[in-house]
Amino acid sequence: VVLVPIVGEYGPTGVLTVGLMAGVMLVALAALRAGKYMQYVPAPVVEGFTLGIACVIGLQQVPNALGVPRPEGDRVLVVTWRAVEEFAKDPNWTAVGFAVAVAAVMLVGARWRPALPFSILAVVAATVVAQVAGLDAAQPIGDLPSGLPAPTLGFLDIGALGTLLAPAVAVAALAALESLLSASVADGMTVGQKHDPDRELFGQGLANIAAPLFGGVPATGAIARTAVNVRTGAGSRLAALTHAAILAVIVFAAAPMVSKIPLAALAGVLLATAVRMVEVGSLRAMAKATRSDALILVLTAVATLALDLVYAVIIGLIVAGALALRAVAKQARFDQVPLDRGDHSAEEHALLAEHIVAYRIDGPLFFAAAHRFLLELTEVADVRVVILRMSRVSTMDATGALVLKDAVEKLRR
Question: Helix, strand or coil for residue 364?
Fold first, then answer.
């Protein structure tokens, strides 16, 4: 969605230049220690994003699991519905059997022997069965590229840097957001593990600086592969290095073998991964915490499924921020308090009370609560003096100060 328009407007070299610029920006974000701001993303947004991504991953596998060609369309719900319609016209139970069998082996095996790589064993078994039985309906992966593209070193167009700045910022923002959210989801899927967001940004930046030099497009951390990695027992960076090394071997030496793997078997792997990404207990606890948390969780999940990652997170953050402001604003109190008697007699105190009134302001006097304070204060009448006790005001912004000024002027008039 982000890269294709860049290709259309600036060509392939534009994408490579954008990737290099985005990599430099990510390294700069890491140097500025911008990763720490991810801690301000509320837990319901992360949980809703995880749930939505799990649904997206599962639905994306439906065409392959049903053994039908992937229908046209950009929205996963539309594509899934069309795939189901195609399957209803011409059912492919062989593909369904492969997908269900692989997913079942992974889910059951993970409970029985978590240390064993049941995903690999299941895919190998499915491939052997498909080849021995000659099941063409299993729809294999097909031919893979036999080598890597030649390095592309002369792509940088200095004159186009200004026009490519906006696309590069968009790519860098998406890379940072998706990578850090993927890392946060991985933290939630493990015990005692926590990523370093600035190191993650630095690594993504270096990768995106290096990739364009070899003709590679910008890349981010991906939640699907991250989830598979974590759920199969990965515990260190060695897993990523092993993944890269094995992928290189496959491309150069084992492509003919890999091309025989049924797509339905790989769909089963990702279906099982999607199921295992969802922490039912965590979702249930968050849904029961407050209505606001439940609303943010559901809204983020639905937006992830119906729109895309960036819009989902933005919507989740905006709603979470609005609800948080509403909750803080409710904490602000404006109450009338009794006057101090001092050395006055009861008669004198009663006379003073007819002409003097005292109010105490508690909590934040800021834009979300200040106008309510103004309405209540300006309703005061038939007194000569208004005392404002403000020692318990926790914070005041410019709006609060302006409202206070307006209230004083109206009371004086």
Answer: strand
Strands (E), 120-178: none
Sequence-distant (6+) residues with CB within 8 A of 328 are: 363, 364, 366, 368, 369
Q: Which two tokens stand for residue 115?
A: 């240390």
121 Cβ contact partners less than 8 Å away, ≥ 6 residues apart: 105, 109
Q: How far apart are the first and last CA of the chain?
A: 59
> Residue 381 is encoded by which pair of tokens?
């009448």
H helix runs in 1-42, sequence order: 3-10, 12-31
Residue 359 parent element (H or E) = strand 356-365
- Residues 107/275, Cβ–Cβ less than 8 Å: yes
Q: What residues does CATH 3.30.750.24 cover in the chain?
A: 332-412
CB atoms within 10 A of CB 207: 19
Give the pLDDT confidence of 351-385 residue by residue, as tens digits. Answer: 666 778 888 888 888 887 777 777 777 776 677 88
- Rounded to an integer, what distance in angstroms lies between the CA atom of residue 13 and that of residue 6? 10
Most confident of 188-192, 228-232, 239-243, 283-287: 239-243
CB 45 within 8 A of CB 317: yes
Q: pLDDT tens, 221-234?
A: 877 778 778 877 78
Query: Quick one: residue 33, left, alpha or beta (phi over 0 = left, psi -120 to 50 = alpha)?
Result: left
> What stretches of 332-397 show up as alpha helix (H) in DSSP?
346-355, 370-377
Scanning the structure block, which residue is given the tokens 């793997």? 261
Which pLDDT score, from 0 to 100, does residue 151 have? Answer: 46
Confidence (pLDDT) at 215: 85
Predicted TM-score of the model (pTM): 0.68
Which listed CATH number (3.90.550.10, 3.40.50.300, 3.30.420.40, 3.30.750.24) goes with 332-412? Answer: 3.30.750.24
Instruction: Give the C-alpha separation, 18 to 174, whole Å.
Output: 13
